[in-house]
């Protein structure tokens, strides 16, 4: 039995209603929710991986609290638009938000370090930095002025470089390249001579197909296959240097969290840790399968960025990221911690993960 089905079976109707606790062999006890919460998200409702990750976390909180907390998930625009969830939870319009920290750079430049940084940390390194390397304390500090408590709530793992209708054989091929690539990665592309374009996920396919853009990154095989992007572009480049382990977040209104009894506070915080691991596992499993389908069934042309292109993008990324790290006092503090951790983790992973994966090939 798949684990999700198992959990569903354990939860029974309590998953949806949040009002009944089903314990095997025991009579169902009616539990009236003490806390009815809204979770607003930046994702379309039930979007594979990201939206379903939000649902999973909400269900976990409902289940683990035995129905004392009942969380209802709202897709983007259902209650508030995607990019207004930060303010909505800050103001108490909703209790929880599910998104990615780089969306909030308008609130704090430092927020970007907690989602994805070009040539930054992998998923495993990100979790290590957050949970055991001082990152989480800094993240708390960044969200504190907004009355929010952040939690890591998922990770996509290393993303793909993107879909191209033009071959990238040298740095010169990036010149004039019109590519959908948001955030810091977009700024790096701009400095390499390209034109970054911001487009919602839903507009990528038609823009690629019509030639309005030459290339687009999205997530990885799991989501890209579902969007049919292989029908709109010829070449699929790797690795996703711009998003090496994107962390998804869940934030809670601080006053709401602190008003809970200690056991429920612990449930909310630790449910998020479980969801964080679960999403990465889901992406890893689904990406394996989807890549196989893309390459073997749809005959996608899989290509690695040439070394000199990656080298140039790395140099430009270092420049762009250091500039973010110099914007203000908080960004400086976060950047220093992040950079020190990355340098140290690189040395360790050179003799562990990298060495092993190279040996296993
Ligand atoms: Ca992406």
Written overview of the protein:
By secondary structure, this protein is an alpha/beta fold. The chain has two domains: 32-155 and 245-285, Bacterial extracellular solute-binding protein, family 7 (D-Maltodextrin-Binding Protein, domain 2, 3-Layer(aba) Sandwich), CATH 3.40.190.170; 162-242 and 293-351, Periplasmic binding protein-like II (D-Maltodextrin-Binding Protein, domain 2), CATH 3.40.190. It is 46% helix and 15% strand. The chain has helices spanning 3-11, 14-17, 51-64, 85-91, 123-132, 135-143, 183-191, 204-210, 221-226, 254-258, 262-297, 307-324, 329-351, 353-360, and strands at residues 20-21, 29-30, 35-41, 69-74, 96-99, 148-155, 162-164, 178-180, 195-197, 215-216, 235-238, 247-253, 301-304. The strands form three sheets. The protein has a six-stranded mixed sheet with strand order 9-8-10-7-11-13. A five-stranded mixed sheet has the order 4-3-5-12-6, with helices on both faces. It has a two-stranded antiparallel ribbon with strand order 1-2. Helix 3 links the parallel strand 3 (35-41) and strand 4. The longest helix has 36 residues, at 262-297. It is globular, with a radius of gyration of 21 Å. The two termini are 31 Å apart. The model is unreliable at 6-22 (pLDDT under 50).
Short account of what is shown:
With 361 residues, the protein is an alpha/beta fold.
């Amino acid at each position: 039995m798949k684990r999700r089905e198992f959990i569903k079976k354990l939860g029974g109707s309590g998953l949806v209603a949040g009002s009944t606790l089903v314990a095997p062999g025991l009579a169902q006890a009616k539990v009236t929710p003490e806390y009815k919460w809204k979770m607003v998200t930046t994702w379309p409702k039930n979007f594979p991986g990201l939206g379903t990750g939000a649902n999973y976390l909400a269900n976990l909180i409902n289940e683990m609290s035995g129905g004392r907390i009942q969380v209802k998930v709202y897709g983007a625009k259902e209650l508030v638009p995607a990019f207004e969830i930060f303010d909505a939870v800050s103001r108490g319009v909703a209790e929880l938000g599910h998104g990615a920290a780089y969306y909030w750079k308008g609130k704090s430049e430092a927020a970007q370090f907690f989602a994805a940084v070009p040539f930054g940390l992998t998923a495993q390194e990100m979790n290590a930095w957050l949970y055991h390397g001082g990152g989480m304390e800094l993240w708390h500090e960044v969200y504190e002025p907004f009355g929010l408590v952040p939690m890591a709530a998922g990770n996509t793992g290393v993303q793909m470089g993107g879909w191209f209708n033009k071959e990238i054989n040298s740095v010169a091929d990036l010149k004039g390249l019109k590519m959908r690539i948001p955030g810091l990665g977009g700024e790096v592309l701009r400095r390499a001579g390209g034109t970054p374009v911001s487009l919602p996920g839903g507009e990528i396919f038609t823009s690629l197909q019509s030639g309005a853009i030459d290339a687009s990154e999205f997530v990885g095989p799991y989501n890209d296959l579902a969007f049919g992007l292989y029908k709109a572009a010829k070449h699929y480049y790797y690795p996703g240097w711009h998003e090496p382990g994107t962390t998804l977040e869940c934030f809670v209104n601080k006053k709401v969290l602190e008003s809970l009894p200690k056991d429920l506070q612990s449930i909310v915080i630790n449910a998020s840790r479980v969801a964080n691991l679960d999403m990465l596992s889901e992406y890893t499993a689904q990406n394996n399968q989807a890549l196989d389908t893309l390459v073997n069934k749809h005959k996608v042309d899989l290509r690695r960025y040439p070394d000199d292109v990656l080298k140039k993008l790395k140099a430009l990324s270092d420049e762009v990221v250091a500039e973010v790290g110099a914007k203000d006092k908080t960004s400086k503090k976060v950047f220093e911690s992040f950079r020190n951790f990355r340098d140290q983790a690189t040395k360790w992973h050179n003799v562990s993960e990298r060495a092993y994966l190279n040996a296993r090939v």
